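Subject: Sanity check before I submit

Could someone independently write out the structure tokens for this chain? I want to compare against mine line by line before I put it in a report. The sequence has 156 residues.
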Amino acid sequence: MDAVKYHSICDRMLDDVYKAALSCCKNRDDADDAVQNAFLKLLKTDTEFTDDEHIKRWLIRVAVNECKSGWRSFWHRNKVSFDDLDTEPSYRDETHGELLGTLNRLPQNYRAVIHLYYYEGYDVREIAEILSITESNVQIRLMRARNKMKKLLEEA
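---
Independent answer below. Compare away.
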């Protein structure tokens, strides 16, 4: 892949890949690492892409897999939590901040499908491909995530 084409892809897709990674990792530093590794793998791959959407789906899938790999690492399993730090971003719309705060309280597998469905606009089939799960599993996770979010929002 030539440098001009690579930089063009990076400019167009960085935000979307980063948002998906941040949704999975729930940590900016880990999301940065996952995105960086995804784009490095793009440089090294010899995959033939059909269009920009194919590249975007591939990058998101690689970034999500990088996040999952990070969660399995020794460091993540043995780190101390800094939940008491006030690092939440401020939002102009209080409802949006509350929804994202509630979304971040969901388990990772629920956060991923909610983010890809509502924030990235992927349909169930595309999410199944990105996450390497069945379409019915995506639908079940979406249903459970919605129910869990509803319950968490009612408690608040």
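---
OP: Matches mine. For the report I'm noting this point. Confidence is low (pLDDT under 50) at residues 78-92.
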